[in-house]
Amino acid sequence: MKTRCGRICVTEKSATEVIGQGWYDIIRKPFTCKNMFKSDLFDGYSGFEEPPHRFTYQGRVPVVRNYINGQIKSSKNIICRKETVNHFIRNTLEGRPTTSYGQNGLAIYNIALNQTQINGTHVLVIGSRNPWEESIMLGLGAAHVSTVEYSTIECNHPQITTYTPPELDDAFLDGTLPVFDGVVSFSSIEHSGLGRYGDALNPYGDLIAMARAWCLVKDLGFALVGVPTGPDHIIFNVHQVYGPLMYSHLFANWQQVYTNTDMSLFTSEGHRRNVRKGGYLQTVHLLRKNIALYNL
């Protein structure tokens, strides 16, 4: 797996190519897009109650054990109704967007509205069981939204197309997948590769997910990514919490443009304050694909 994944899956400090400094180290990782979309890259076994050592960035990232079997046993498809989407779109147009994550999710709307251009775009949403992200993008003027989700989604809205990961892989490899203007993901990528939902156990699952997003977006396209923020650690198998080390690798090859992250969250006191308030704050980063900047 690591051979096919290339430098995306290299996290050793001595082998990391740092080319600058943003909020986090700016890391360059040359790789081949086609290799990211071979389905056997994700083959493996879920159900481990202890994470293999490769999840820990060579022992630099601590692990807290909290095993959850969240595998979805129902074979029913997710239903996305046009009426629901249009209701959510109206809420966005009225400046009170619907989110599945309260105030945390509003950052997607605020940053998309104020920091980038959505009007007329085709946006890919990564990981979505409720069309709030899609509706925000459409409410802000996106021409079309595509969604990729492990479960099959049946959606009758004319501006939404849905894929499962194998369908997305096939469309990319046979050249029928459109090039997207941007990608949006909130509370999804931090679960990649941990096996919580019955997916394959993969220590580089989140890094591969962001590399795939890079491949799917046009040059100078954007990514809006929301994941849990705090000192680097993994709550296995619930989710990953991103600090300066893990963020730098997650955002390899992406230009760091804007964030609503309070950098004090990376300190021990900031982390304790965050947890006392009820959990891990999911902050949002705006990134840009910039081939010339990274010489890729």
From TrEMBL:
InterPro entries with a match to the protein in the record: DUF268_CAE_spp
Record's protein name: DUF268 domain-containing protein
Species the sequence originates in: Tigriopus californicus
Classification lineage: Eukaryota, Metazoa, Ecdysozoa, Arthropoda, Crustacea
